[in-house]
């Protein structure tokens, strides 16, 4: 089996390539993993993408690319749609031509956040931001082009390969001894290493369709920050604030927690609690 990871220099992409090599290390016959960066393929160009994929002939393509700066998407609308929507479509078209299965990573920000409990796959998306709208358009394009896909909606990612909420909190805490964090955004912090394992579980068990996959449990960003400083033992005051206290370009959902029951029952694998994953990640910082 040949697995092509596109977006292999991103936070998730790099961890996925690394985690797959750890998983396959002990196996005699294992899949071949090909890591493609933006330098290898620009997914906004249809012909470039299809020629690249035709040359590699992968069995599975994992699309970890995105224009992920949620606020910048509001002012770079055409670039956001080019990567998140047209790019996803180009990969799906090329995958269909060569018979590859598409594993596409999407987001909790396709929801408007008004639900009082975690969102299931059957809930209606209603994105508030350009980022969410462009990611939803990518999902719909894939579903229109092929049946041979898995769309994984995940959330609040952090991991060793990019600055993220955890590292930002640690930097701010060291500088200022206090951090102000919103209490009215609820979600599911998710460790890229754990998501990578779930992606392999999905590939190896042959699942198809739409799945929500995050670490288990939900919290507010405020509770997440509190947990970070509880784990470091640093005396940093976490000050509760509201989203409305901050001016930012994009509207983000108040509750974007995802219900992952469908993934757990279909795969037989339950993601560990977000607190345990965070603790493990913080040991390598
Ligand atoms: N981060 C989160 O909290 C979060 C939450 C929910 C869902 N997700 C989803 O999870 C996935 C991975 O996110 P991430 O945070 O790992 O992203 P990331 O670190 O921003 O990485 C995205 C990668 O996409 C590449 N890329 C951008 N435009 C491209 C293009 N036109 N052609 C080829 N490659 C291109 C980037 O390369 P360059 O940097 O070289 O341009 C970068 O390596 C994305 O689908 C994202 O929507 C993320």
Characterise the protein shown here.
The structure is a single chain. This protein has a single domain (2-163, 190-217, 257-272), classed as Rossmann fold, CATH 3.40.50.720. 44% of the residues lie in helices and 17% in strands. It contains 10 helices and 12 strands. A 6-stranded parallel β-sheet has the order 2-1-3-4-5-10, sandwiched between helices. The longest helix is centred in the N-terminal third of the chain and has 22 residues, at 77-98. The radius of gyration is 19 Å and the shape is globular. The model has no long low-confidence stretch (mean pLDDT 97). Bound molecules: NADP nicotinamide-adenine-dinucleotide phosphate.
List keywords for this structure.
Rossmann fold; alpha/beta; 17% strand; 12 strands; two-stranded parallel ribbon; single chain
Structure summarized in a few sentences:
The chain is an alpha/beta fold and 285 residues long. The protein has helices spanning 11-25, 46-56, 70-75, 77-98, 130-145, 165-176, 192-205, 221-232, 261-267, 274-283; strands at 2-6, 32-36, 60-63, 101-107, 149-154, 157-158, 178-182, 186-187, 190-191, 209-212, 219-220, 237-241. It has one domain (2-163, 190-217, 257-272): NAD(P)-binding Rossmann-like Domain (Rossmann fold, 3-Layer(aba) Sandwich), CATH 3.40.50.
């Amino acid at each position: 089996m040949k697995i092509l990871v596109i977006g292999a220099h991103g936070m998730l992409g790099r961890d996925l390539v690394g985690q797959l090599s750890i998983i396959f290390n002990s196996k005699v016959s294992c899949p071949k993993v090909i890591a493609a960066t933006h330098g290898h393929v620009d997914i906004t160009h249809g012909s470039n993408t299809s020629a690249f994929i035709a040359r590699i002939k992968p069995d599975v393509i994992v699309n970890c690319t995105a224009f992920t700066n949620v606020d910048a998407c509001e002012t770079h609308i055409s670039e956001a749609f080019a990567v998140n929507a047209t790019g996803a479509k180009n990969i799906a078209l090329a995958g269909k031509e060569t018979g590859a299965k598409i594993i596409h990573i999407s987001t909790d920000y396709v929801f408007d956040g008004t639900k009082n409990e975690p969102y299931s796959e059957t809930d209606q998306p209603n994105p508030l931001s350009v980022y969410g709208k462009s990611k939803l358009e990518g999902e719909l394009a894939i579903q229109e082009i092929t049946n041979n896909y898995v769309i994984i909606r995940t959330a609040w990612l952090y991991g060793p390969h990019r600055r993220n909420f955890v590292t930002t909190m640690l930097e701010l805490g060291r500088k200022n001894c206090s951090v102000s964090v919103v209490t009215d955004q609820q979600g599911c912090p998710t460790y890229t290493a754990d998501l990578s394992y779930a992606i392999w579980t999905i590939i190896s068990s042959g699942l198809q369709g739409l799945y929500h996959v995050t670490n288990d449990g939900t919290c507010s960003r405020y509770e997440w920050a509190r947990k970070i400083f509880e784990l470091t033992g640093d005396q940093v005051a976490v000050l509760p604030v509201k989203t409305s206290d901050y001016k930012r370009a994009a509207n983000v959902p108040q509750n974007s927690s995802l219900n992952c029951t469908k993934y757990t029952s279909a795969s037989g694998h339950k993601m560990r609690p977000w607190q345990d994953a965070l603790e493990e990640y913080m040991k390598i910082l």
